[in-house]
Specification:
six-stranded antiparallel beta sheet; six-stranded mixed beta sheet; 613 residues; 41% helix; elongated; alpha+beta
Length: 613
């Protein structure tokens, strides 16, 4: 299955629902790709998994989902210019239906690994016809997909509302056969019938050798399916096959019906494709049972067994129409050889003069050689661009994950989730994120600062180590840093709501910090101030949100920190390791947490310690 089908589905989901819904569906369907390449082949199971995920998350039935996917595909292919092809397939809707196999045959030049379905019509009337759909895809959901495509084509290109019902659906061997009843204004069929009855059936003399030269790849066979005559170009590359059963020499590739007289007689308005059963490409000179050919990768291959699935010109394919000649009581196949390029032409033993002069066969082969090179270059460039796009998407997802993880370290979980969702919703409008002020009834703030000798490299290294441990300790005890400089560190807890042990955690955290600083190789004087109370906060920034706090509580905390050196100088010969608690903090601590507390100015309680062990 080519990626253009998946591209149309993804575009439809994103447009009709949302980007978030697509990501949810992609995760549920276990799809690693966020984007698809139109010319790349993907697993057949992707669409069934997407349908199941859509049924789960969109609340729609699977039939409705497939119907919408099919209709969306017809609109989507306009981006690739295929709407121009759909408009010129037929003058009316019946002609379009009869030419469906021709459309798929055309697409095989752009999608060489395409395994198209087969369509044919019967039981036509003024009010509609019966359409037979056969496919090797055994997923029954494609029936609804095709139904949606038929409705969309009738509405968009022929201005008709098509009524479609399923008469029968069955699986035979490895093939699904669905019979549709299509009701629409099919007056074109009646007009054609009247026109045919009024034709002048004048006999024109034509020598048989002239007729055979006009159609070098024709095959004439009777009701017993015995070949009576073949064109000169067929005789040049095949052994004598006249008198053989045509079903033993050729297999019927399209339409997907039995290769029998009755089946052909009822479908003479359908395009037929035949393929030789045995390989016709050059044999090794020393081994009559070994065939050589060039695979899709351009490498020479050889094997005594070659299947039609491996065909790259190994088998001769003929495409054309079946015409019943009443005077001969025989069926005449008028076809041309399907030749992708000059390599296939030469390896089958054919030459340009073997092809008809009155049609475009020769021009197509020559043009195909040039276009094949250009198409390979285009597909290679597209593959590279797709790979670059996928890599960019993966890098973007990785950066988003890193950014989200960083948010959860810098912000409380509730605020981080809100900020991340807000950022995702406003990615295309950075700087326009709304910022609001909130109030936490009882937040606990901690301010650490220290004196350092900036000229001492050991001291600088020690400060870096302190910062790393401050981050680890703060995260462990539920604190989030809001301000960091070379000589200060401020953290907060209790936002948006506090807990019972917020103040006690602050004291334990302070003890850990002081112990680390005093026991390190280079002892650094550290002062810690802790205060709690109502605090106003806001998440500032759109691309990299950060938490900011305001209000009287923050002002009191900074005032408390300024008392550290002036009120409580360190004893001689000792480095100060000091923790200062406000009365608001001390009153919430258990009694066992108190340690040498004395009253200070402005209702501030101070705690003096050289080591908190």
């Amino acid at each position: 299955m080519y990626g253009i089908l998946l591209e149309s589905i993804v575009a439809f989901i994103r447009k009709s629902y949302s980007e978030e819904k697509w990501h949810l569906i992609r995760e549920s369907a276990r799809i690693d790709h966020d984007t698809f390449s139109a010319h790349q082949v993907y697993a057949e199971t992707l669409i069934p998994r997407i349908v199941d995920a859509c049924h789960l998350h969109l609340g729609l039935s699977k039939d409705d989902i497939l119907l919408e996917f099919g209709q969306a595909f017809v609109d989507y292919v306009s981006h690739y210019g295929y709407d121009k092809i759909l408009r010129v397939v037929g003058r009316n809707f019946r002609d379009f239906l009869n030419g469906l196999d021709n459309i798929h045959e055309y697409l095989r030049f752009s999608y060489p690994k395409l395994k198209p379905p087969s369509f044919y019509c019967d039981q036509e009337s003024r009010t509609g016809l019966i359409l037979h759909y056969r496919s090797r895809r055994r997923y029954a959901g494609y029936t609804g997909y095709v139904l949606g495509q038929l409705k969309a084509v009738g509405r968009s290109f022929y201005k008709q509302e098509i009524s479609v019902s399923i008469l029968k659906q069955e699986t035979i061997s490895n093939m699904v056969h669905v019979t549709f009843q299509l009701n629409f204004d099919n007056s074109a069929y009646a007009d054609k019938t009247i026109e045919a009855s009024n034709e002048n059936m004048a006999n024109l003399p034509l020598r048989m050798d002239v007729f055979y030269d006009l159609f070098p790849f024709h095959i004439l066979f009777d009701r017993d399916m015995i070949i009576r005559r073949t064109g000169k170009s067929l005789r040049a590359i095949l052994d004598e096959i006249s008198g053989h059963d045509v079903t033993q020499v050729f297999s019927l590739k399209k339409p997907l019906v039995d290769f029998s007289w009755d089946s052909i007689m009822s479908r003479t308005n359908t395009m037929f494709e035949l393929s030789t059963i045995d390989p016709i490409r050059g044999k090794e000179q020393d081994d009559e049972e070994t065939y050589i050919w060039i695979d899709s990768g351009g490498k020479k291959r050889s094997s005594s067994v070659v299947t039609q699935d491996e065909d790259n010109g190994t088998f001769l394919r003929l495409k054309g129409q079946m015409l019943f000649v009443k005077e001969w009581e025989s069926m005449l196949f008028l076809g041309t050889a399907i030749l992708q390029d000059l390599d296939v032409l030469s390896s089958t033993g054919l030459y340009l003069n073997d092809l008809s002069m009155h049609d475009s066969s020769r021009d197509l082969v020559l043009a195909g050689a040039q276009q094949g090179v250009e198409m390979k270059l285009i597909m290679k460039q597209e593959t590279m661009r797709t790979k670059q796009l996928e890599d960019a998407v993966h890098r973007l997802e990785k950066e988003k994950s890193r950014r989200q993880a960083l948010m959860y370290k810098l912000l409380p979980k509730t605020l981080a989730t809100e900020a991340f969702n807000r950022l995702e919703a406003n990615e295309t409008q950075l700087g326009q994120t709304e910022q609001t002020l909130e109030t936490a009834p009882n937040a606990t703030l901690m301010l650490c600062f220290w004196d350092i000798d900036s000229e001492n490299p050991e001291t600088s290294r020690q400060v870096v180590a302190i910062h790393k441990h401050l981050d680890l300790f703060a995260e462990r005890f539920g604190y989030f840093k809001i301000e960091t400089t070379q000589a200060t560190f401020m953290a907060v807890s209790g936002i948006p709501t506090g807990t019972e042990n917020t103040e006690e955690n602050a004291c334990v955290l302070a003890k850990k910090i002081v112990c680390f600083a005093s026991n390190s190789a280079v002892s650094i004087p550290i002062y810690i101030a802790i205060h709690s109370g109502p605090t106003t906060y806001s998440v500032i920034g759109s691309r990299f949100p950060r938490l900011c706090v305001f209000g009287q509580t923050v002002t009191d905390l900074k005032a408390l920190a300024k008392l550290a050196k002036s009120v409580m100088p360190a004893p001689d010969g000792m480095n100060s390791q000091m923790v200062l608690l406000s009365e608001a903090v001390r009153s919430r601590l258990p009694e066992k947490s108190g340690n040498n507390m004395t009253a200070g100015p402005n209702m501030i309680t101070t705690v003096r310690t050289t080591r908190l062990n």
